[in-house]
Amino acid sequence: MRPTTGLSPRPADSAASVGVEIQDDGLARVTLRRGHAGNAIDLATARGLLAAARACERAAVRAVLLTGEGKSFCVGGDLREFSRLTGEALEKHLVAVTDALHDALRTFASIDAPMVAAVQGAVAGAGIGLAAAADVTLAADDVTFTAAYTSIGYSPDAGVSWQLPRLVGPKRAVEMLLTNRRVPAAEAATIGLVSRVVPSGELAAEAEGTARALRRGPTSAFGVTRRLVASGQTADLARHLDDEAAALAAAAASDEGREGVAAFLDKRAPDFTRIPSRP
């Protein structure tokens, strides 16, 4: 049984903190709505992200677009909320927050639909975890990243200590986590923390276009590819080659594979959207 917390939000609070809109064409928009607070993650936001992830899973969406309202994508945990508790109550509260947040990240990672994140302004703490969880992370040219955890005596969450070494390398990851130095947009792109940098005024349109392009793709093949890349970080080469072979054979025999090859031979664009996504 998970521990209870003294600060339990109502369902309406979670819905107000995180918006989810699933369109008929299979594109899901997940929006952090606490722009006035830098989209800091409180318990309501963590539970809102989990509800959004589960909604995307149930609807078998084709792509997810993650954004944050206001000047900053996400500044990390809501320290004002955390400071209202002490001792065992605080520990239980943080377990509740991270339980929901981590379940959301696990759910987004498990579905076939790729995720695009558009990040701007300050991205700190768990905000880095959200940005890193996306398959394509587009950054505005005004963005700055800082781990921030150890500056307040905390340790990482939101998969940050797992994602950072894989994205930027262990040495650079540890440096970022221990020194909490600010990493500007250009450096973030150079070290692999984000996919690419775009002018601030073009971020929304670029993210929208990228998500819509992925929505038209082979969702099941995307899911298999994402999982192969993730498992390849830890699997030995021999096992991974076997996994690739099995996955390729299954993909070739699938409706997506048949449509893709037929379109290639017919010299036309494939229409993967007519093939239902898997729930």
UniProtKB/TrEMBL annotation:
Pfam families in the record: ECH_1 (PF00378)
Q: For this protein, what is any one GO molecular function term?
A: catalytic activity
* Annotated coiled-coil segments of the chain: none
Q: Which CDD domains match?
A: crotonase-like (cd06558)
Matching PANTHER family: ENOYL-COA HYDRATASE (PTHR42964), POLYKETIDE BIOSYNTHESIS ENOYL-COA HYDRATASE PKSH-RELATED (PTHR42964:SF1)
Instruction: Tell me which family the UniProt entry assigns to this protein.
Output: Belongs to the enoyl-CoA hydratase/isomerase family.
**Full protein name:** Enoyl-CoA hydratase
